Amino acid sequence: MEYRFLGKSGLKVSELSFGSWITIGDQSDTNGAYNLMKEAFDAGINFFDNAEVYSAGKAETIAGKVLKKAGWKRSDLIISTKIFWGGEGPNDKGLSRKRIVEGADSALQRLQLEYVDLIFCHRPDLYTPVEETVRAMNHVINQGKALYWGTSEWSATQLREASHIARENNLIPPLMEQPEYNFFRRHRVEIEYKPLYEEMGLGTTTWSPLAGGILTNKYSGGIPEGSRFSLEKYSWLREKRLDTPEGRDKVEKTRKLKEVADEMGVTLPQMAIAWCLKNPDVSSVILGASKTSQLKENLKAAEVLPMLTEDVIKQIEKIVDNKPEGEKDWRL
Ligand code: NDP
User: Fold this and answer.
1) pTM of the prediction?
2) 287 C-alpha to center of ligand 1: Å?
3) Angle, CA of 254, 36 and 66, to the nearest 5°
4) What is the dihedral of CA 268, 269, 273, 275, to 10 degrees?
5) Over the stretch 8-33, which tens digit does the pLDDT of each residue have?
6) Which is nearest to 117 in space by CA: 74, 86, 147, 143?
């Protein structure tokens, strides 16, 4: 396992990390989660991603039990949580000071931890002044309940605003962003955030490297029993991500991408994850797996990285046909 600095911080995060959305709590109980997290830890993964909203807190509760049972050294672990959706009450959503302070406390209780390493604002909150959120995140850090803070799916403009407010007030700015990044969603990581990697020292922990499983090619012949998009509770996700013209286009492109992976003699998930790793602006690719066999397969992605030659990248670009373009240079 290789370790990358999380942005311009001194923190080293495994280039592959392990997440818990849907998989822990909905698809695995404590025993299943233990097997998955142990597989990940034994392979050198040090970063375990979580959020208060995952299985309505159950993912954190289970992760807490697994950490207790495994007894891994706390200093060998990077544990995250994400705050935004904490419940249904008028103050249970968003990024107000009350929400962040109470959300962090509840997450720590469920995780049975004194602190999380990373705390994320799970989405931007259009109703809370950014200064309130920046000050609340600093408060949580100053209380020793988190070590670094960041955002998920914030725009570059929102990130810059938070960073400026922090610097003007001698506060800690956000360090990391958690965006979706895979063959089908590239613009933010490759173009929008590009100036921020230098300007703010921004690190990225990217999600859904397999577009929720589409990039395994398992959906090319329908929806397999037990797969993510077959889950009744997540039918909204299937409707949004699979049962749309864009979803069908992804499935079609995935078929062609598989041919490239086949030619290389690797699996498509390995090729897709390696492609994310190839981007040096990615600090860690968060893997999702409902079975240890999937995780074992995906963990080999780093070995595939050197096989992504210019020729292979060209073949991929031709299929995905979505290379994002930056600002046009009108002087040329
Ligand atoms: P992926 O896109 O990699 O999807 C993972 C799912 O794909 C697995 O749970 C499994 O689903 C299927 N899969 C994975 N590998 C294989 C394989 N080798 N063969 C067959 N099927 C496979 O990642 P996720 O969408 O799970 O995201 C990863 C993590 O990122 C999350 O756990 C979470 O921590 C984070 N995240 C953050 C978000 C944010 O807003 N900040 C949003 C989403 C995720 P199945 O077996 O059920 O079909």
Assistant:
1) 0.98
2) 6
3) 145
4) 10
5) 999 999 999 999 999 999 999 999 99
6) 147
- Cα distance between residue 134 and residue 70, in whole Å: 34
The candidate with the shortest Cα–Cα distance to 299, out of 39, 77, 9, is 39
Place of tokens 């370790």: 3
User: Ligand 1 centre from 23 Cα, in Å?
Assistant: 8
- The pick from 290, 295, 304 for probing ligand 1's pocket by mutation, whose C-beta has the most ligand atoms within 8 angstroms, reads 290
Q: What is the pLDDT of residues 255-284, one digit of tens each?
A: 999 999 999 999 999 999 999 999 999 999
Element (H, E) at 253: helix 245-264
Residue carrying structure tokens 């860690």: 284
3-213+279-291 CATH choice from 3.20.20.100, 3.40.640.10, 3.20.20.80, 3.10.450.50: 3.20.20.100
Domains of the chain by residue range? 3-213+279-291
